[in-house]
Amino acid sequence: MESNFEKLNNKYLKQEISLSGVRSIEYYKKIAENYAELEGSIVVLSDMHYNKSYLYYGEFAKTLGLPPCNNIDDIWEKDIMDHFHPEDLEQKFIQELLFLNFIRHKPKAKRNGYCLMQPIRMRNENGKWYSVIHKVLYIPEDKGNLWLSFCLYSPIEGLENQTCFILETATGVRHLLSELEGKNILSEREKEILRCINLGFSSKKIADKLFISVNTVSRHRQNIMKKLQANGSIEACNIAQRLQLL
Fold first, then answer.
1. Which CATH number covers residue 196?
2. With the C-alpha atoms ordered 35, 146, 164, 78, is the resulting torsion angle positive or negative?
């Protein structure tokens, strides 16, 4: 079964991306470089068409003890992610899958108008942990497929109790990922069935409780797994709890 990382990777790299009519990659590379220098952040510009990333390190990279940055033949900044808390790394993939689903339901012309804001923990080479805000923005091509992603890492104290949210960049409106996706991803019946699954009910017991057929329960279970990008019932319940759906 695919992991959440593999699912996200495939969704990014299997898009049919056309670069006709888009700005030069050099334009966006310069923006990323300037942002890292001015704000002191770590900035990663990933190209989903060529499966490459361009890394730009501000002063925060020195705080973490990162080696000199290089361009890499991968859309994943693995040297940076090695500094993530393990729980936050898995959460990152889940939240980005949901954000990707959210973006794909928006009009093509507005897909660059949203930013995912993820509070994470990162450690330096001496084991000290820092609170960091991880921002993810997409640059679509003319057809609306996601060509580039900007990932920005900036240290901010006091993020321990903050939750992930989506920011509308034109208005500053915030949407909690749990509230937003809870309405869109699972129907009320699916949430009802997932609560039964979380209690350990078998498909037959769920069917008897809800007065539906076992086949109907099985169909709902399959839809829940697909929507939550889960590989099984336990993982689906864990993801739903993190997103406050249970």
1. 1.10.10.10
2. negative
Amino acid identity at 25 = I
Task: Dump pLDDT digits (tens) for 153-201.
Answer: 999 998 877 889 999 999 999 988 765 544 557 788 998 999 999 999 9
- Indicate whether 155 and 227 sit together in one domain: no
Q: pLDDT tens digits for 102-141?
A: 888 889 889 999 999 999 999 999 999 999 999 999 999 9
Could you tell me if 89 and 166 lie in one domain?
A: yes
* 105, 48, 14, 96: CA torsion to nearest 10: -50
pTM (2 d.p.) = 0.76
CA-CA distance, 42 to 206, in Å (whole number)?
48
Number of helices (H) and strands (E) in the chain: give both, helices first. 10, 7
* Residues 238 and 122 both lie in one domain: no
In this structure, the answer to whether residues 173 and 190 fall within a common structural domain is: no
Residue 126 contacts residue 41 (beta carbons within 8 Å): no
Structure tokens at 144: 């609306």
The total domain count for the chain is 2
